[in-house]
Amino acid sequence: MRLERTIAGAAAAAAVALILGGCAADPAENAAAPATAAPVAATCVADPHEVATTPLPAAATAPVDDATAAALDEAAAAGFALASAPGAVVAVQTPEGTWTASYGDADPAAKIPMTADVHHRIGSVTKTFTGTVLLQLAEQGALSLDDPVEKYFDGVTDGDLITVRMLLNMTSGIASYTLDEDFQAALFADPMRVYTPDELIAMGLALPQKFEPGAQFDYSNTNFVMLGRIAELVTGEPFATVLGELVLEPLGLGDTAMPSADEVQLPPPSSRGFTLQGTPDDSTDPVDATDWNPTWAWTAGQMTSTAADLLVYGRALGTGQGLLGEDAQVERLTSMAPKGGYGLGAGCLDGWFGHTGELPGFNTALYYDTTSDTTVVVLANSDIPSGDCTDSKTLADDPGTEPCMDPAVRIFAAVSTALGHTFTPLPKS
């Protein structure tokens, strides 16, 4: 999702971005539209049961052969050369082996090169973790995906009709709080401000409902903040604790976290993240957004991780193994809505199942190829798109001849081609 507006009196173009890998029914009429489209599930995952039960080959954790490494490096470097990012990390795991490389700088001012172990803000990839927690709680019987949201929240318009499932697949009709003008003004006036989940939910619920529950698709961050609170309500524990118990600890994701409000700085090692969001209309000078407070995104986009952790998690997300039972994972892989293509906290495009993520200064792509048992992670320390962009702000020296793409997505697309299964996102403007 990229949301753009001009702050009155400041002449500043601000884009609050939490990108995902799902689908918008019509990006031209949806300012909060996802970056990629997905067909309905029947055409996206050929055999969900096979995907959910195929074991990880022993060879997958060993290094890839030299020829494969060279081909992946050439593709990643070519994508990076066209991306507007100081640095990037790329990680790939196939049934034949694993490959990881880093490019450019983690801190260009200090001339510190990028390394593969940097901690990174993963934006809306957080939604896949939140969705997974909700599906696990449903498996445990702690809640039902068909529960009406009025069971958990008072005063929600059509709260008796909107279900947990509709929050997960973005068909609730509840507007995203990131469309609220008061929120936007406050966020860009003070990027260090701390927000609470209840504040964010209240702002979203105060906005007019966008459509009847279940009638359409509309990407809304309010949905996923509400899901985080539901997890807390049914468990009686903070979301970070639930996340640790159900996802992080079982998978051994020691470098992945939902930081608290007073732990917003990235742990070392980390890179500096750069953005054009919030800069004046006539400025093409990126600003350092590394330490902007991410609490405005909470369970919709606040998490941090590393390439190594995401490589483990990406396969678990795609197969369900270590996270969900076969039936629950098959439901997830076949849940893509015809009116949007977004499923239960993730999207699917031509067999690639996953999500992208963006916060000011950072861009992430995390996808699992259900056709080849391959996981790809790309981390970029910039959210600045490049190429022939008509609406999105680019750097002054961007030649603008390639299709408009965000940096991690551009590198991912190049790597996917080298893997023999090209990921083609919707054109970005």
Could you characterize what this model shows?
The protein is α+β, with helices and mostly antiparallel strands. It has a single domain (2-418), classed as Beta-lactamase. It has 13 helices and 13 strands. A hairpin with a 4-residue loop joins strand 12 (362-369) and strand 13. Helix 4 packs parallel to helix 8. Mean pLDDT is 90; it is low at 1-41.
Number of E strands: 13
Calculate the mean pLDDT score and round it. Answer: 90
Number of DSSP helices?
Answer: 13
3D shape? globular
Fourth-level CATH superfamily: DD-peptidase/beta-lactamase superfamily
Name of the CATH first level: Alpha Beta
Order of helices and strands: EEHHHEEEEHHHHHHEEHEHHEEEEH
Annotated CATH topology? Beta-lactamase
Work out the strand percent.
Answer: 15-25%
Using the 3D structure, state the CATH architecture.
Answer: 3-Layer(aba) Sandwich
Over all CA atoms, what is the radius of gyration? 20 Å
| Tally of discrete structural domains | 1
Relative helix content: 25-40%
Low-confidence stretches at least 5 residues in length (pLDDT < 50)? 1-41
Structural class: alpha+beta
Report, as a whole number of angstroms, the end-to-end distance: 13 Å
Instruction: Summarize the main sheet.
Output: 7 strands, antiparallel
Strand order of the largest sheet: 5-4-3-13-12-11-10
